[in-house]
Amino acid sequence: MTSVLNVDTIADKAGTGPVGLTKQSAAKCFAQYDQSSGLTLNDSLNVSSTSDDSTGDSTHNWTNNYDTSTYALGGMGGHDVGTRVLTTTAKSASSISLALSNSSQAGIDENDVSYIGHGDLA
Question: Considering the entire predicted model, what is its pTM?
């Protein structure tokens, strides 16, 4: 026997907030940004502010901190032809600094950079 559950919204018992996940993990942050002319944050979750530190380098501050600096972050930098590498240059429970470089290891600014993070929040 199969079941179908069709809903528009799932909320907590009070009907005012999200439900808690049990024995599951959801992304705790994500961002999609354009660094080709300054840094424009196009979409995000749990990112309170960003800074364009230099060509290819940026810092992202969390709205809600992680409990430690051992969270996992995966990312993708740019969509142009060629190799793009997004690396972590500094990481704390409250922020992360990222560097985007090309195959020559030179810093580059791209218009389509994204990442997603998993870990426990403080």
Answer: 0.79
